Amino acid sequence: MTMRGITYVIVLISTCVLSISSGIAQNTAPSQAAKVSLSGFVNNALASMGLPEGTKIPGLSNADDLQLENVTQVSSNVTTAKVSIRKIPFDITSYKPTGKTSELIVIGADGLELHKIIPGLDGTPLGALGKMESAAFVYVPKELAGVQFGLASNSDGSSPVPQIVKNILGPNSRGVNLSEGMNFLASASLQNFPGEIKTLFRSAGLTIGKKIILSGTVSRNIFKKSFNKTPITAGNTNLASASQMKNKINALIADYGKDFLSELKIRGNLQSDIKAGLLDIKDSKYVIQGAEESKSISFGISADTASIAKLAFQKVLISYDPEKRQVISEGSIEPDTLSKVFDFGGLKLDKIDLASVNSSGDWQFILNASGDLNGKQISAVFENSKSKENQFELQATLTGGTKGITATDVVGRKVPGFDEVALSKVVVSRGRLVADLLFGS
Known about the structure:
The chain has helices spanning 38-47, 163-169, 195-203, 242-256, 259-262, 335-338, 407-411, and strands at residues 8-12, 31-32, 69-75, 78-85, 88-95, 104-112, 132-140, 148-149, 176-177, 181-189, 211-218, 265-269, 274-276, 279-281, 285-291, 296-308, 311-321, 326-333, 347-354, 357-359, 362-364, 366-373, 376-384, 394-399, 405-406, 422-429, 432-438. It is mainly beta. The protein has a 23-stranded mixed sheet that branches. The protein has a two-stranded antiparallel sheet with strand order 8-9. It has a two-stranded antiparallel ribbon with strand order 13-14. It is elongated.
């Protein structure tokens, strides 16, 4: 930590009782401090950040009735406390890095299930993270955006982060780049995700026993309703249907504001070299991403690039459709790259999208495309004509709107006697076209 005169806030929520580590560098004996409310603790830290007057964190900044317990000054730069909210014990730590004038506040938790503390999250991808090993919320002012917080070592090999803070951060103390606003850090086991998400992981060959370290941002309003006395009617962690999800997202926007979606950006690195059917992915992440314009939350296994044979895909997302009860994959491909594995005279494609599905553990490779065949506007569905999973040969089924495709469209010139004959079930593979003829109107 080398920044001067800057304050940042880390909010962590913990169900375990943290012991004060003897490994803290300071030798100051612990002392009991005067009683203070949760709002006072947080607002004092915000005031020291040099933020605009009146800056608040909804929920935390107005929790005047919640008195902290066991407020203890562990050392000259570390103070710890506890508070119970909705029967969940929170651990709070304020920490001033050595040689700095600004503080850092840690409010943290182990074994947290977000949908039980944040009203309205049940059934959403954020509520479907399951029971996490640890979870942290980090409020960061603009001046600290891009700063990496974690296990940076001093010249003597020791860490400048007190052991009590590292205990709370757990695996997250390995280091994370902070963003302006409310950051989210968590350690979660894939085993604790709901069944649908585990089906998604298994479809890509991920080991369910593995853990994932998540980091990103959420709305600073996320605690707005956590501390009131209204009971949280938390359901299970299973994903809601499309219609239910729409209603839930509208309710979340009404309760927490539009930035609930615009600020929702969570990522977690997955194991390298995964395979989703024929799709090879080198570097992937589990993502939860809000979209304010479409009022939606996307989630799943994301990769910037992926490949099948000589086909190169971009912006791949493998997700789960709770209504169809199947894993789906999306992505795009440059039309020019398709010619490396598929070519048919006169066929020009301008848009090709990955649309593979996985039902009952089996992947069905699908590409949806549009373009023209010798000037005739057509749509195409590409599939793998080989039955064995390790073999790949494209086959395309073409359609040409209400009038269909004619022999003239296929050869690019007049065909006497066949000019107006519609071809149905037009299948193209390996430079060959097979079609049924439809005579008459």
